[in-house]
Amino acid sequence: MFRFAQHDRVRSLMRTFGGFRSGDKFFYGEVVGEEVHLLKNPYWTEIERTGDVRKLADLRVDLPVAPSKLIAVGLNYSDHIAEMKRTEVGAPLIWFKAPNSLLPHDGTIQIAFPEHRTDFEVELAVVIGARAKNVSVNDALDHVFGYSVGLDITDRDLQNQEKQFGRCKSFDTYTPVGPFVYANVDVSDVPIELRQNGEVRQRTRTNLMIYSVAHLVSFASESLTLLPGDVILTGTPSGVGPIHAGDQLEAMMGNWPTLRNRVANARDNGSRGPSQVNASGPQPHE
Question: Most buried one in 19, 236, 257, 267, CB count within 10 A?
Answer without folding.
Answer: 236
